[in-house]
Please model this.
Amino acid sequence: ILYSTLSFLGLLVFITIIFWLLPKQCNSRFQQLKFLYNKVISLREEVQSYVKTNLTIGLIYSFLSYFFLILVNIFAMYGVTERLELISSFLFIPVISIAVITMPISFNGLGIRESLFIIFFQMTGFSAEEALAMAAINFFVIISYSIGGGIAVLLEKENKIIKKENVNPFQ
Model:
């Protein structure tokens, strides 16, 4: 999610810089390009309004999702080992999540996530078994996030289908 968000932000920054570098004299010099110029300006305004609303909300949801994922891992860490490593959790969990997302080697990052948990959390004094237990809990939390999102999408599609079926074509 973070990689795609950063890629999208980079693309938006590139397009915005290009559009702002277009001189305003272009409109007076090339009357035949007036239509194209107006389209570019309207596209720039549309992108700016999109960035201010939807992208901001998406980023907030993304950060909240990662925060709750880290929080669940902190509780799992305490449940498994009865000790807390807050700084290492806030450092390692996002790195592990991004690494698992960007390496499409296995199904849903199975094996990669567990290996990275063992590697990173052994550096802070956890045993391999404790790190593996925390990775398993992390996996089940991510699966429950995915199932919740899948149910929401299915319910939304079902509501759209029901609304389409209830439309009277003779009105």
Notes: Confidence is low (pLDDT under 50) at residues 25-29. The helical segments are 2-21, 26-29, 34-81, 86-102, 112-122, 128-165. The chain is about 80% helix and 0% strand.
